[in-house]
Amino acid sequence: MPADSPPVVLLHGLGLGGWAMARLAASLRRRGHRVINLSYPSQTVPLEVLAQDWLPDQLRRHHATPSPRARINFVTHSMGGLLLRAWLDLQPALLAVHRVVMIAPPNHGSRLVDRTRHWPLFSLATGVNGKRLGTGPDQLPAQLPAWPHPGPELGIIAGNVPFNPYFAHLTGGPGDGKVTVESTKLVGMTDHLILPHSHTLLQYRAEPIRQVHAFLADGRFKR
């Protein structure tokens, strides 16, 4: 990997932390990438505030603010993809973001949230953002803008083997148990790949990690 290659920023999913992306981070570092593995308060701070204030501050702290002469890459898991989309909508220099890999993003929301967001334990576990990840027009995913064009090259990895059969039933359709394959897709994406893993485990598995490397290197997944 060239010394001047763009840094790779990792954004985990709801209720997790940078530890959830640690295996991926270690693999990227072994390939010579400069990795910025961030932890954000996904349960206590609204996603819009994270996008407007928290993420720009973290990029400045890590000397990774994108500019026409300083490109940057992102790899996200689950709600981390929505955080990135919200942040991208605020950026004047989109071409500085080179490539993005989203793992299991609820780009069109989750029907699991539609059916469980009123459960007391769900609200307790997912905080201020979890109940906003449904599929309705008033929900957060529907409020986000389309993928920018022209914009970063976007590769999306979806899972189709759920871990929890009951959650899979509530979600409906082929998917990873929390997000359907169709919900991961975005108009304007460069490539889309389905792998036989569950939502929670996708970012830990060897094949998704191999595919992240492939997309960051070539802008395409390997088949």
Brief summary of the model shown:
By secondary structure, the chain is of the alpha/beta class. The chain contains nine helices and six strands; from the N terminus they run βαβαβαβαααβααβα.
Unreliable stretches (pLDDT < 50, length at least 5) are none
What is the end-to-end distance?
22 Å
Helix percent reads 25-40%
Counting H and I runs of at least 4 residues, what is the number of helices? 9
The CATH topology comes to Rossmann fold
The secondary-structure element order is: EHEHEHEHHHEHHEH
Rg (CA only): 16 Å
Coarse shape: globular
Secondary structure tally: strands = 6
CATH class descriptor: Alpha Beta
Strands of the biggest beta sheet: in what spatial order?
2-1-3-4-5-6
Protein described:
The protein has 223 residues and is an alpha/beta fold. It has nine helices and six strands; from the N terminus they run E-H-E-H-E-H-E-H-H-H-E-H-H-E-H. It has helices spanning 22-30, 47-61, 79-88, 111-116, 120-130, 140-143, 165-171, 181-184, 206-218; strands spanning 8-11, 35-38, 72-77, 97-103, 153-159, 191-195. It has a six-stranded parallel β-sheet, with helices on both faces. The relative contact order is 0.15.
Task: List the SSEs and their pairings.
Elements: E1 8-11, H1 22-30, E2 35-38, H2 47-61, E3 72-77, H3 79-88, E4 97-103, H4 111-116, H5 120-130, H6 140-143, E5 153-159, H7 165-171, H8 181-184, E6 191-195, H9 206-218
Helix pairs in contact: 2-3
